[in-house]
Records
---
Amino acid sequence: MSQKSPGIIQSLLPIVALVGMIMFNVFYLGDYTLSGANQLALMVASAVAAVIAMYNGVTWNELMDGVVRTITSSLSAIIILLIIGMLSGSWMMGGVVPSMIYYGLDVLKPEYFLPATVVLCAVVSVSIGSSWSTIATIGVALLGIGDALGFDPAVVAGAIISGAYFGDKVSPLSDTTNLASAVAGTPLFTHIKYMMNTTAPSIAITIVIFVVMTVAGVHEGAGDAVRIQEGIASLYNVSPWFFLIPLVVVVMIVRKMPAIPVLFVGALLGALSAVCFQREMISGLSGGDLSAVGVYKTVSMGMFGATEVSSGDGVIDELLSTGGMAGMLDTVWLIVSAMIFGGMLESGHFLERLTYAITRRVRRSGGLVTATSGTCLLFNVATGDQYMSIVIPGKMFVRSYERADIAPQLLSRTLEDSATVTSVLIPWNTCGATQAAILGVATAAYAPFTFFCYLSPIITIIYGWLGIRIPKLSERHVAPEKLPDMPV
């Protein structure tokens, strides 16, 4: 049976089915959305795509080949996610996160906490080039500090993610920054310099919004920092020396070591810290068993399973509890389900049909930027993968920008302004699912407060339609660069 191209309605049906089921889950199933309901929605939408594709002549083997390709592309993200679970557990047991919260409460005050959170995460993320590592380390501590100060975790998570994704966009060490510039054929520092035209206003407005929210008293109260500090000190040995562990991780990342071994070393250092310096806490968790086997069992369980401390204070207990690797399993399940859906759409040629419908009539800068941004968002929704949302639209639109006499840095900037930052707003995207798991805040809860992630695509579209700083290809030739291997 010969294959035929799917129609536009056929191509939209799986996405409409998915979005419809997700919305139903959010409104009626609440906390169950991430623990199974959204995964089920992705599987049902995948089935819809498979039926339509097979009706059009695509074989089952071809569909499964597409699924295997997309799942394979997400394996590094899954491995990183599991190791982050280990790291969060070991850093909590080793006193790293408790010490960061303890001393952070001395420095960070409610009067400037939210804008300071954005700036701190931005600085760290620019330094190491990774939003995921920033959120998994300093972000987790800042969330605990915000909780102790009386701020809504969703608001704090929005500030953390806004700062972290600013760095992910502009750092020369960032994988997405290098990928977007290479796909569009823009030299790296030309891309970064041109991108600041939209990124600087976006982060500035974001900081102003958080300043206004802080002044308006968005926190629920001043919290009880002294009580939290006393509770932490009663359970852990706290010391600024424990800051050396995240410092080692940051230095390793800055030296361009791969993320997976770096995070694994960080997790092991946290476990070593627990064994050497947190014997009293381990004794409490193990029922007084400080034998070699008892210590090993307790520390291991903290890395792979849930750990709940008991201080007699519910706020402190919740603040210092962690899920370890097991706490990431719902997210792994969600990512795999999203990759199945993306594979079905790709191998069934649905995405190809939709993108053709988007690109065939656009010629002017405003239309090109809007179409590129919309396509990046579409791929973030449909494939659940940030890298595919940069690479595929980049390849699709490169000739359109050339025909419109527009230099490639506008394309590379638009890819970053749209694909990179909106990935964290999609619950089933690898980025959205991962940050929700790390911070313990649902994507739908923090999404309204990630102002930077909204402002970036909005400002880039406005610039496109107003013709602000649109570089002409005829005025300045930019030599294409070789597309790098996908970073891990």
---
Amino acid sequence: MLRRSSLLDWLYPPACVACRVLLPVNEKNGQRPFCPACRELFTPITKERSIATFTYEGLIRELILDMKFNSKKQIAQALGLLWAERLQGYPVENISDYALVPVPMHRNKKRRRGFNQAEVMSLPLAARLNIPIANVLSRTRDTTPQSEVHFSRRAENVRGAFCISPRQEPRGRNYILTDDIFTTGASLNECTRVLKNAGAASVICMTLTISVKTT
């Protein structure tokens, strides 16, 4: 007898998240949500142990924009699986001493979108690294999206926008901040400042993509 998940795969065959081409029915589809052709379109960062895994361009940029502006949680889940799969090594030694901290989203924005993409994408990453997720940070202001703010004012836009969550004690602990895009680093820098001021021993950053300026 087919298991329920297998039966659903036969009734509703899984499709590539990017191009919607049907994927073969097998046990690994849940961990590989993109077809081979689309997977070739993602541009990996060549520098080892970089803050990011991919450059923010082409197909992955289109997917992130679709995820954010059309509230597609399925894309966030798929990108999280891709991130975990393509992660090269561990970002630090003694990785078991760390916890992942997704950059928080204000409750109003999370209500509108339905999810925080940083949290969703961090779940497969936490499983890959075998470390917990710690929602140690909260967002205090519903700031203007950084994409709508000039580069020179992004740090000011998020200054004071984060705080330590209630009943959390970062003192002496190690954290890895996670987010979908690194552009100016303003949000990551502000989160790092808050954690360090609260006594965190070590804070490093990891993003799925990095925006690279071309001249």
---
Amino acid sequence: MVNENIIYGKNAVLEYLLSGKPLDSLYVVKGTQGVGQHIALAKKGGGVVKDCDVAKLNAFTGGDNARHGGIALIIPAVEYVSLDEILAVSKEKNVPPFILIADEITDPHNLGALIRTAEAAGADGLVIPKRRSAGVGATVHSVSAGAASHLKICRETNLSDVITRLKKLNIWIYGAEADGEPYYNQDFTGGVCLVIGSEGHGLRRLTKESCDAIVAIPMKGKINSLNASVCGGILMYEVVRQRK
């Protein structure tokens, strides 16, 4: 194996799936035969099944088709938790909730940096979507400098449902976008959920419409946007500053 988070080959992947252990994504080269059980077990276990080409799988596994057999399984470097477990953190500390949502951040370096800052800022946890998002694999874990082992991370199918549930708990949802109001004009002293969008497209339309407020970081230079993890870091430490 190239790293401890990738299992490849039909037999090895099947044995892992039969064990019922946590999984992230199952990659299958289109047209690969004899993988119906693998796909069914991956879906049952909450994993995401993705089609890919041989070249991508070769890059993942550092081998050729004869070695991986057209199938590879990505397993998480950490164990994901439920949303309830994240919500329990603020209750135990007797402070207002402080949660982060990453809306389809696909760059593992960005996600890892975001996790590192979230843990340092004392956030309760991070929610990521199951699809169209980097999972917490070896790269994310490494970039987070180990913070991924300490921050509670939840993986949900529908972020809109998560936002709706948080709102019912009187947690205000703040989305980060360039057309929002300056972040320093907001009151972050109550229950807060910061939503950070993807690197290229920002927040998805439905996610943006679900937010209570859209906040922006004023840009004074010629560049009109910030890296997602930098944006998240600025907003998180404004929460820390106000609560201090």
---
Amino acid sequence: MKKLLSILLAGAMALSLAACGGTPASTSQPASTGASEPASVAETTGGIPKEEIKVGVIHLSDPAEGSGYTYTHDQGIIGMQQNLGLSDDQIVRKISVDDTNAAAVETAITECIEEGCNIIFATSWGYMDTCEALAEEFPEVIFSHGTGYKSNGTNFNNYFGRIYQARYLSGIIAGLKTETGKIGYVAAMGQENGEVTSGCNAFAMGVASVNPDAQVYVSVTNSWFDPEGEKQAAERLIAEGCDVIGQHCDTPNPQTAAEEHGVWGVGYNSDMTKDAPGATLTSVMWDWSVYYTKAVQNVIDGTWVPGEKIDNYFGDMADGLVVLGEFNTDLVTDEMIAAVEEVQAKIVSGEWDVFDGVTEIMDNEGVAHTLEGADYGSCNWYYENVNVL
């Protein structure tokens, strides 16, 4: 029922969309290459004809890896392309663009512009400042940045979602599954990063809701993409006695490490059961096609025009952007699934959400906090059952 509901919600969103449609990098003008220039949405009537629009996407790694963050974003681009009926030559991909290298990011984005892209999706946190700078230089192009917080209100926005909703649900599974009472969490960034920390806290709150005595242990890699570091972090947690390994990092390596050591895990981004069928209980997932379809359709329709107001996007389980993957029924009982589905129904209906309306959330230093879901960026503290290795 859970999976069917997610599919129906995502389908409904796609149908409605079809009806309506860090240091900043140098901003020097790229040399002319004779390539096509992007058509200005503002200078056309009714947007851009579907057959003329061009979409750029900047990827942190290679989607061919077949799992994890970049793969999931590219699946969203493919879904958008199929939903809107775009041809392959209307999609420009720049892969393995290091988000710590501002010059490389600028080169990738300007190449997309030179190839005629009208809208560019920059999928990693570290692309944000370069997008901000180039948006000022190229006002005729829309820059849409994933996971960040900056925007200029005209041709540069950000998009993300309430991924902590699915993380809370996965915490319920972890809390019910653990036998040692110790649950691990591989985090890409530390306490200062609100995106990662809010998700970890939601996971820990889900654990506590069904297992108040359990503790969550965090191991930080300090990198969005570090295959070897992610494996080592998981192994540190397993050595600590953790028998369920959650993650906010790119690769399935924490899940494969869990399988190698005979413990369990919760994947992230895509369904990681295929990577570690003997360990992965479920996966916290995105369906980025929900947003990509909406954004590109709006550009086609002329309802999203540079120079006019461009809204930021913060999706959730109700609109199908955030998904909890299928349960591994070889490892997860019917009772565990029922416990998750009861809470999930409240989240999807809007009856309840993880942070909204919670007046006091105690951190691991005994300080009380309040946090609205849309304000995840201010979460720079850990929930009371969280420990840092």
